[in-house]
Amino acid sequence: MDNKEIIQILKLTASLLKLYGENQFKVRSYQTAVYNLERNAQKLIELGEKQLAELPGVGKSIAATIREISQTGVSSTLDNLLKQTPKGILELLKVKGVGARKIKTVWDQLGVETAEELLSAATRGELAELSGFGKKTQDKIQQIISFYLSNKHLIHYKDADLLGLNLEQQIKLQFPDARWSRAGSFRRKVEVVGSLDYVWASDSVGEAEDFLDSMQGLDKNLQLSGPLRWRGEFRDNSELLDVRFCNLLEFGTKLLYYTGNMEHLSLTNEQGKSLREVLEQSHSDESTIYSEMGWPVIIPELREGLYENEFLRGQKMENILVTEDLKGILHNHSTYSDGKHSLEEMARACNDLGYEYLGISDHSQTAVYANGLNEEKVLEQHREIDRLNQELTPFKIFKGIESDILSDGSLDYPEPILHTFDFVVASVHSNLNMDIDKATERLLRAVKNPNTTVLGHPTGRLLLKREGYPIDHQKVIDACAVHGVVIELNANPWRLDLDWRWVHYAVEKGVKISINPDAHEKVTLKDVYYGVCVARKTGLTKVMTFNAMNLEEMNHYLSTRKSKSSLHSNV
Ligand SMILES: [Zn+2]
Ligand SMILES: [Zn+2]
Questions:
Q1: Cα 35 vs. chain centroid, distance in angstroms?
Q2: Which CATH class, in words, describes the domain spanning 1-85?
Q3: pLDDT 10s digits, 2-32
Q4: Distance (Å, rounded) from C-alpha 349 to C-alpha 361?
Q5: Distance in Å, CA 460 to ligand 1 centroid
Q6: Using N-to-C axis directions, what is the helix angle for 436-448 and 473-483, rounded to 10°?
Q7: Which residues pair with 403 in a beta bridge?
Q8: What CATH fold (topology level) applies to the domain 323-570?
Q9: How far, in Å, CA of 120 to CA of 117, rounded?
Q10: What digits encode the pLDDT tens for the residues 122-168?
Q11: CA of 338 to the centre of ligand 1 (A)
Q12: How far apart are CA 527 and CA 535, in angstroms?
């Protein structure tokens, strides 16, 4: 049992205790333990009860619970709570933004036990009547639950990618010579996908099907499967798997067709012939289909029917960004705020990955929940950075901060402190309930601040979990262009914010894009990959990618920008 699973049990226990109105100190003790354990790098199952109790945020009683979980795989406290709780209520507890107490009220007073029932009750206006709710809360809950239900069966790309890699490894072992490929939005690396699609060419479809039938962790759906199609679910979380079989001679045709998307297939060449028409004949390779169109092979990510034409008329597909083009990564956290690994560990890990620099940008002082840095801590961190930079040279740590954009759009430190940073990522983390005018105004003010280097995760969305606050993308991007502010494409797979559909517009306006992992631990430094995946969908090039600059260029850029900003602020 790994830390993640143990923390999951504690987290659920906290939600259920809250649901059943347990005293708030008990609930908080679980929440504090979860917060601290998520940032703890030691293996919990290897620790004794005494050592556990000494961990920050973990008291005696939770240490005993962790021990029980390590030894038996379950927690009796949680088991008792689960016995009294319907499945639908557990599901509702996972939805961000409703809250355990409100769920208990609708359960007790309206008999609501599922997300669907909650939505109906809200639609009928029954929630507004309950004490402590009102019309505004009802509308909010209705919006949250509609969003949840419409996304319920989607998978975010990183989860799909990891599941896919696992499956593919087993296919490779069993059928080393087979020709197969990912297909659909999964192959196009869309940020959320409905299913893991594959096209598999085989002369003996029966064998391939038998293999999938007998695979551990997969359940075939007989109704949805057919003679050349295997559909089913991954047992753990019911993600859908959809495999289409074909013969080798038509592999290219089927793959291109099932990769899509529809707009891409409708593209026509100069002679007016569409891809769809070429697909009427069988091709064993995609490349011959594209060459019949007089085109180079279009990378799957780009096949959205949006920007392909630019790459068919002059722009080179090879110029599209790849992960190796990134020379450093900005926007990362450490144990100074809410990260799991120390500044030194993060820097060394980044160096080991072959990058030339790391931008550290812990949370600013207002972000108390994330242990944001007060002025003293900022200076302490800067001293440590100076020391590490001497040790690690030529690798460099840039002194940054993820400054909260306060409700009025200002940044989170006085000018003299802001001037001590090499760069500032400005992001919104609080008061997310804003209308489009207010949210846009808030961002615009931050963008106009001469201390802002990068605008962080512009909408605050969490894919499948929380809609972002609405913003006028065009206005915000235009302002970034005017004020020389870089926009982040936050590569945390839950965010991928700025949405890739706006990247092209930003680039057109001359705004550079920074692909930032927002890593809170060493392993997620690698999440830049997911940012690159979606950036490639827009044809983003190395030239327009901020952190594709090498150390020398970044040094030059940041120092020039900084001297300009202090000039501005002193006027
Ligand atoms: Zn942030
Ligand atoms: Zn961050």
A1: 20
A2: mainly alpha
A3: 999 999 999 999 999 999 999 999 999 999 9
A4: 16
A5: 8
A6: 10
A7: 426
A8: TIM Barrel (3.20.20)
A9: 5
A10: 999 999 999 999 999 999 999 999 999 988 889 999 999 999 999 99
A11: 11
A12: 13
Could you give the residue range(s) of every CATH 3.30.460.10 domain in the chain?
A: 155-314
Alpha carbon distance 477, 486 (integer Å): 9
Query: Residue 571's pLDDT band (boundaries 50, 70, 90)?
Result: very low
Which of 363, 377, 475 lies closest to 426, judged by CA? 363
What are the start and end residues of each CATH 1.10.150.110 domain in the chain? 1-85
Residue 343 CA, ligand 2 centroid: distance in Å: 14
512 half-sphere exposure, CB direction, 13 A CA radius: 19
Q: When comparing pLDDT for 372 and 152, which is higher?
A: 372
Q: How far is it, in rounded angstroms, from Cα 56 to Cα 340?
A: 13
Which ligand minimizes its atom distance to the CA of 520?
A: 2
Q: Are 44 and 6 in contact (CB under 8 A)?
A: yes
- Say how many Å lie between the CA of residue 334 and the centre of ligand 2: 10
Give the architecture-level CATH label for domain 155-314. 2-Layer Sandwich (3.30)
- Look at strands 423-427 and 454-455 and give their pairing: parallel
Ligand 1 centre to CA of 36 (Å) is 19
- Between 466 and 164, the more confident residue is 164
Residues of the chain with CATH 3.20.20.140: 323-570
| Cα–Cα distance, 224 to 218 (Å, whole number) | 14
Sheet holding 328-332, edge to edge: 328-332, 357-363, 396-404, 423-427, 454-455, 486-490, 513-516
| 33-77 pLDDT per residue, tens | 999 999 888 899 999 999 999 999 999 999 999 999 999 999 999
* ipTM for the assembly: 0.99
Task: Give DSSP secondary structure letters for 149-182.
Answer: HHHTT-EEHHHHHHHHHHHHHHHHHH-TT-EEEE
Tokens of 329: 């990564």
Note the pLDDT tens digit of each residue in 122-133: 999 999 999 999
Distance from Cα 516 to the centre of ligand 2, integer Å: 9
